[in-house]
Amino acid sequence: MRRPLEILLAAVLAGGAILAASYLVAKELAARHWMDPGDDLEWLRREFRLGATELDRIRQLHEGYLPECARWCEQIAARQAELQVALQSATNLTQAVQEKLAEVGNLRAQCQAQMLRHFFAVSQAMPPEQGRRYLAEMQRLTLGHHERFERSMAGSAHAEHAHH
Amino acid sequence: MSEPSGASNDSALRTLLREARVTPELPLRFQAAVWRRIEQTRAARDWLGPIVSWLWRPRLALAGATALLLFGGSLGLAEGVRLAKENAKERYVAAVSPLNAGN
Hints:
Order of helices and strands of chain A: HHHHHH
Structural class of chain A: mainly alpha
Structural class of chain B: mainly alpha
Mean pLDDT of chain B: 82
Order of helices and strands of chain B: HHHH
Number of strands of chain A: 0
Largest sheet of chain B: none
Helix content of chain B: over 70%
Largest sheet of chain A: none
Low-confidence stretches of chain A: none
Strand content of chain B: under 5%
Shape of chain A: extended
Oligomer: heterodimer
Helix content of chain A: over 70%
Mean pLDDT of chain A: 86
Number of helices of chain B: 4
């Protein structure tokens, strides 16, 4: 035992390497294999502890909803392209721009209504408690973002008014 | 008159100084004291020795390595599952709500 300090340092380094390697390998393996990366509904199955029958029903709803959702998205994208064209030629807020803005807004609202209908249908295919949790979570994830944004805007507007 | 005499005095003084090498006497047990100091320094440096030799046993090293492996593995597993859940959730939300994708 001629160089205890060197041996102790080597042991600490080896321990650190073992810790880091085991952490990284386990994380990578778990991230890859814990969920099926090819299935959109894998999160629902795990998170809301769905059985095979419930998952089959939800899969039907999901597969029925996706093409409708895609149609809404195409319409919104088309209107947004028209809005861009209208904006490029405008030097002012023209009637055409206002109409296109209203159309995009209207389509978005209809798309969101369709999405909420789908969430209600999915929640009803789940056990009641899980269905309530699913609805709350989906509303938070999809509508909550806009609400947070609007609330933050309202907050900053109030602050602005308070300054004036 | 005095210059030649002064020069010879200087030379005599220099010779005297060169020859007069003072050899101071070492204190009593000086060598023993030096060795004692050296031993004390070595002993202070070797305090790690017993600890390392206690730790440097195959069973203990194996147990430590296994514990670290399990601890790191558990942490990694928990983090990996959390990441997988997060990715799967994002995938589902992006599928059903494309308007929110990228938010």
